[in-house]
Specification:
heterodimer; A: mainly alpha; two-stranded antiparallel sheet; globular; B: three-stranded antiparallel beta sheet; 12% strand
């Protein structure tokens, strides 16, 4: 047993390595994400975009981050200090936690030990993700309220309404995924249908001849509802009423400056990445993809490659939507959430549950007859 | 498709030509009549064109020009006419770059160039006096900023083309003629549409 094997056999060591790796990965991803967003939006507006710091301006985010670190962190006189200081941290923590349950690549073995490329393989990961994304609302609401200023307060109020109403649609859109997962694993134990690594495993094989067995081909309506709700949940355009700069200055982070603002900013982009990664995991087969019969020393990269490729394609769609659609009005947002998305996801859930039940157990009268 | 066609529009724009340029490295060709900073011109023989008439100061809507004229010293005349502008100041913080001073000038003494890099760190540096405005006998214009990637001093020698003085220098030979007067270090710009071919300029005015 080599030293490496012995180290990775220790759960604490493995956990620590994975957490540090995930943290570093997320920071790098955010740097890339902000740069990609600025470049793509610039392209769509016939501009050049950042091009000074580093090749093609890729270090622009690093420069901005350093600048924010050295900026004065102004604390206005009327803030509720404790909550005001806690809100940026409360924004960051759930954003990091969500990523911990997402598998980014194929598990591999070091000696006897199986190492999964996710920090922890929770058996209730889908619930965990929903819980964490609900927690993220607190940061916005509390940050807006504790600032003691009118624009952040309005931003916080909007956040309450928006994120809570879209949370419902998002949760309902994920139920068919769990249903499908448990139906597909009917032969084996139905347990663990909420584990993200299990859901990825179930998407192996093919749907019809060349088409891969991704859940999106069964659950396209779920994906559409999930994606729309996710945009609203992460406060991205066209649902960025919470920080509508045209109306609310900066929304909930108006009174934040320096590094505290950077934390909010970081959390927003982390959420965008998390939601894309989650959509890839749930609907697009996660890290699954062909490895073209490459030799093993290079083939182990392919799952990571596929995962990040799919995720960044979805991130591109996020940016594309932002560059295209204007911001919704408050009442339009509420209409879309409560009168369209929630009924739609309920109907789809019922239809899908029926179909799944019939496929699994047959029609009820047949059962009676048989 | 309504709202959905917007996605095609934004996607298509990604492959279009960029409308912005990387400014200091890549400078766009300015229009011929670009209104940049001012310059006080000289005749090719080194005489100052300004006659101190204060028409520019009178027409200036921003009131940013201050001119004082006085008699040419008899022994060593500064300009070909009776008087010359011994004080000439432009407050470029107030200037709106409308070019009315250029139009008002009867002798094409004041013109605008293509240079617009005029940033200063002290307000009083934005008061351009005779020292900064007046070109020397070779046509070289002093500029407060050193030449560099941002300030291409060659642009100081590119007049804005909005010079239509009839009867340059007020001499009878130019009666009814619309033409340029020659500038030190520059010579005679090519005639624009509507300008007559210039009559031969006699050297050594007095």
């Amino acid at each position: 047993m080599s030293l490496l094997e012995r180290l990775f056999a220790n759960i604490w060591f493995t956990g620590a390595v994975k957490v540090v790796a995930a943290f570093a990965l997320l920071l790098v991803v955010v740097i890339l994400l902000v740069w990609i967003e600025r470049k793509v939006v610039a392209d769509m507006q016939n501009r050049i975009g950042p091009n000074r710091a580093g090749p093609w301006g890729i270090l622009q985010t690093v420069a901005d981050g350093l600048k924010l670190l050295f900026k004065e962190s102004v604390i206005p006189r009327k803030v509720q200090l404790g909550v005001y200081l806690a809100a940026p941290i409360a924004a960051m923590v759930p954003a990091f936690l969500i990523f911990l349950v997402i598998p980014v690549g194929r598990p591999f073995h070091i000696g006897e030990t199986r190492v999964t490329l996710q920090v922890t393989d929770l058996n209730v990961a889908v619930l965990f993700v929903l819980a964490m994304s609900s927690l993220a609302v607190y940061a916005v609401v509390l940050g807006g309220w504790a600032s003691g200023s009118k624009y952040p307060l309005l931003g916080g109020i909007r956040a309450t309404a928006q994120m809570i109403s879209y949370e419902a649609a998002m949760g309902l859109a994920l139920v068919p995924v769990v249903l499908l997962a448990s139906a597909q694993s009917a032969g084996e134990t139905g347990l663990g249908a909420m584990s993200l690594s299990r859901i990825v495993d179930l998407q192996q094989g093919s749907f019809r001849w060349m088409i891969p067995g991704w859940f999106v081909f069964w659950l396209a309506p779920s994906f559409v509802i999930f994606f729309i709700a996710a945009i609203a949940e992460t406060n991205r355009a066209p649902f960025d009423l919470v920080e509508a700069e045209a109306e609310l200055v900066g929304g909930y982070h108006t009174e934040y400056s320096g590094f505290r603002f950077a934390l909010f900013y970081l959390a927003e982009y982390l959420n965008m990445f998390n939601v894309s990664a989650l959509a890839v995991t749930l609907f697009f087969g996660g890290w699954l993809g062909p490895d073209f019969g490459l030799p093993p020393w290079i083939a182990w990269v392919m799952p990571l490659f596929w995962f990040f490729l799919k995720t960044f394609i979805l991130v591109f769609v996020f940016v594309w939507i932002r560059a295209t659609l204007p911001r919704l009005r408050y009442d339009q947002l509420m209409n879309l959430g409560w009168k369209r998305l929630i009924p739609l996801s309920l109907v789809w859930l019922m239809v899908f549950a029926l179909v799944t039940a019939v496929r699994t157990w047959g029609w009820p009268w047949e059962r009676v007859a048989g | 498709m309504g709202a959905w066609s917007g996605f095609a529009v934004t996607f298509r724009q990604m492959f279009r030509r960029r409308v912005t340029t990387s400014y200091p490295e890549e400078k766009r060709q300015k229009p011929v009549r670009f209104h940049g900073r001012h310059v006080l011109n000289r005749y090719p023989d080194g005489m100052e064109k300004c006659i101190g008439c204060e028409l520019c100061a009178g027409v200036c809507p921003a009131r940013c020009i201050y001119v004082r004229g006085r008699e040419n010293p008899p022994g060593a005349p500064v300009g070909p006419g009776e008087r010359y502008g011994y004080v000439y100041e432009i407050n470029l913080l107030r200037c709106i770059f409308c070019g009315l001073c250029v139009e008002a000038c009867p002798t094409e003494a004041i013109t605008m160039t293509h240079l617009f890099e005029m940033s200063v760190t002290r307000r009083r540096d934005a008061m351009y006096t005779r020292d900064e405005l007046l070109m020397d006998a070779e046509g070289t214009v002093p500029h407060p900023q050193p030449p560099g990637p941002l300030a291409d001093l060659d642009e100081l020698r590119r007049p804005d083309g909005w010079m239509r003085a009839t009867s340059p220098s007020g001499r009878a030979a130019y009666e009814g003629v619309v033409a340029w007067t020659p500038i030190a270090g520059w010579g005679l710009p090519p005639a624009e549409r509507g300008q007559s071919a210039p009559p031969a300029v006699e050297e050594g005015e007095g």
